[in-house]
Design goal:
The protein folds into five domains: 362 residues, Beta-galactosidase, Chain A, domain 5 (Distorted Sandwich); 155 residues, no CATH class; 57 residues, no CATH class; 103 residues, no CATH class; 56 residues, no CATH class. It has 815 residues and is mainly beta. It is built from seven helices and 54 strands. Helix content is 6%, strand content 37%.
Length: 815
Amino acid sequence: MKVNRLLFILVTAALTGSLALAATAPGKRAPASKIMSQKTLNANAWTIYTTNYGPMVNPGTGSGGFWRNPAHGYIYGAGLWVGAQNSTGTKIVAVGYNPNSGASELGPVSLDDSYENYLTDQFARVYLSTDPTDYNDWPVLDGGKKVIRSVQDSYCKYSDENPQFTTSGDSVLHVVVEQFSYAWNYADNNDIIFFYFKVKNKSSQILNNAYLGPCADCDIGDESDGSPNDRTLFDYTRNLAMQFQTEPEPGWDKVGVVGFRYFESPVNNTGDTVNVIDNQFSHAIAPGDPLGMTAFKIFTLAQDPKTDEERYLEMSGVNYWDLVNDAYDEWGAVMPDDKRFLMSSGPFVLKPDSVVTTCIGIIGALDTTALKVASDVAQTIYDNGFVMADAPASPSFALTATAGDGQVYLSWNKALENTPDPYWAMLADAKIWNHYFPGTWSKLPSASQLLVDSFEIKTGVSTSAKIARGEANPGTDTLNAYYNQKELYEPYDLQGYLLYRADDLSGLNDPVQRVPVGTLDYGSSGAFGYFYDKADGYQIVLDIDQYAYVTPDTTYYLPIYDTLGTDRGLVYGLVDDGLTNGHCYYYGISAYDYQPNVYFTRKCPTTMSSDPALYAQAVTPAAQSPSYVPPNIAIRVDGGSDLRYGGALDYFQNLLAADPKAVPDDSFKLHWGEMGRYSSGGYNYPVYQGRLYSSGDSLMDSLTLVPSYSFSGADPTPSFNGTPYDQLPFGGIVFQPFLHYLLTQAVVDTVSVTGVYPADSIFAQAYGSLNSLFTASGTAWQWRGSDYEIRWRDSSGTVGTNPAGSILCATVWDI
């Protein structure tokens, strides 16, 4: 018996671009095809073999679709059927997968829809966004930019025009199908794969009474052992078809169900009301309304329709054997068998060069109730335009690269960190019961734990109890948690930046060809890299994904850790030195995010990074013209804070013209407010707040400076020193003031002492517990900038080693 064990091994993976683990360098062409193309969809709980010749789910040595376990087959094969009547009334069906034979009448085509060289055209293939070569050649573009919607997209094209694939005696429709698939691995959609189809009429004639839908042979487990046991259900109001079984499968922990759902269907464009005729669920569809699932038909091996005429009748909701109008077959749940089903949507009209679209989801769940819920969530995802958690992006973001003499000035703006994740706005702003993922409560930050209201606990085989957070556990497993998903999702989740340089555009996505820009930095956790990240304590974090290490005896699930940075702080300008004049360099920036509550909620990946080529800039360094005049930056300081005049702030130490050409003839004002106080570990630290104003007195930005208390340079004693966590970009420059305040700068200007006191009665610092909390040196900064009066009074207490000494106590008054 195989046993799954959890083995904890520290794996620290530096966060780079989204394709950092490329096995094949981008830019290399795929070899010419010798066979038709098949790729594996495996971004989430599904493993599906999909092709560019009809079968959206293609049988391998066994099943073509596996759920939860790579050995647990749920779908043997499936493919799209397109049926219509041509101008002569001939009923024609282009079959993407024939469950009786496994054959397809659809074949690969090139990107320009030609089938002539389908076996040798290297671009006539299934493209997978997670494959580096496919990514480099990605054909789905918008304005010249790659369009990738999900964690794993696929794309291919096929048609019914190649006579090599047409079943003997059948006619062709002359349709071309574009097939897209989208998969995410978040909590709400880890069990769903979306298939989106665009079907184009390439003929010169109108295709009337057209239908569109998948035919699927959903073998759950082994249906070839002489006792097939699959059953079917449907929910036409949800446009949902389901297949399940009531018997266990040997060696399976649980047996689930599989569903197919129309998330989008063709629209009734016939000009007339479409009447769906069924013995139970007849209904009418008005012109202009979505057709939905207008037929659900069940076959067995002996009952499969064998001709286009028979297949078309089934698509239109008519039993081909008795010609009875019966749109929905209700008997599928009664008698177990090796069943396959056809779901279709129609009729509609497809004119020459017109396109009809549909989206069909494949969904896995442990029972039919859960399947319906999952399909409803998936419908919402589709209705929201596939808006999901994504890497930081903003149309206002820009990377600027300016040539210098043997160097390049790089700068960018704050748009990514000021743009909320659009997925956050889609989340329901209400407390609901959410699935609890075992072992994740302890990983939720303590502040976020307060946002979880209650839990549902399993108390028996079929019983549970609901308890408030913090109450004693009355049972065993935690089933669900009650909280507001929106409250546990950080809308502004940018974590940091990585800059890269390469010799060509494709090299920015190749870890071998690209070079990180900046300086290597080391964090307190052992993290290191070229990260420019928030100083928020998140350096190495546990990923929600695990690595499955398979041995002949067992499978070990190893934790994965992500390196998010070193708490260096965010910057907005760098200078890349040591370059060759006259050589063209490509620069890219990869912005990445982090959701601190994701291990508990599972609403998105732990961290996502943007494509470094997305905002790429090409620049060629060159010697400066003799007439070049660099920007002149002058600083005038009011209020005595300038280090040059006795203050504590150095305004030039960390000032850089990051984009010299963008430095305007303008003025800006940085106003420092009153010093505040920050407490940590029993110590108080000064806090400085700065606000940046334009020449027109409009607030542009702000920054916070909390210096550390440590040794700096050659100082003999610790000092308050440091910079704001992040740079402040404005006017083509980046600015990061540096504070260096020695304790010896705490000078009392005026002292007035009257009376005569023994010398050992006056101490410079407190004794006892106060000594570690408030020392004269450690908090001397608090006495700067004001006049104080010390008022003395007699008291008694421990003086030195004398427990009953006479002591003077002082109170300090700010006057």
